[in-house]
Amino acid sequence: MWRAPLSFAFHPTPVTLVSLARKRGCCVSRTPKLILNQMVQCPISSLDLSFAALSDMTRRGVLEQLGRADASITSLADRFHMTLTGMKKHIAVLERAGLVVTEKVGRVRTCRLEQGGLEAEAEWIEAHRKLFEARFDALDKIILEMKQEEEDGRADD
Question: 20: which of 39, 107, 116, 147 lies 20 to 30 Å off by Cα?
Fold first, then answer.
């Protein structure tokens, strides 16, 4: 006899799952099953890394600051009122996304914007902007046709 799967509002242990399933009369294997999340297994694209990096206000501010002039991690940390460790983590995210390059000279690590860092992202945004414009234009056309049909229906009455 098949029953709907159990659903939980918490993350139960395997033992809890087994005992609850048995109470419902389900046949349960004692061998734990491995569940893979395919989204976690997929490689991360450069667009994903870039947009994830840009999602943080501090990192956007760092990019804006580096657009004006190169800066050391220490000066960026001071400017954004944060610890050196915290700023290093932000810079690491920006480096992984290919938006910032750092160079260590002596004891000072200087950050600068990567050349062409947002070109792929700008192309992606522009392509999707054109797509949405076309869809909104088609929607406007449908709405105008519906209004015209409604007005024609009123005129016939």
Answer: 39
Query: pLDDT digits over 82-104, tens only?
Result: 999 999 999 999 999 999 999 99
**What's the CA gap between 157 and 118, in Å, rounded?**
58
d(CA 141, CA 157): 25
**Least confident stretch, 36-40, 111-115, 142-146:** 36-40
pTM, two decimal places: 0.60
Whole-number pLDDT of residue 116 = 81
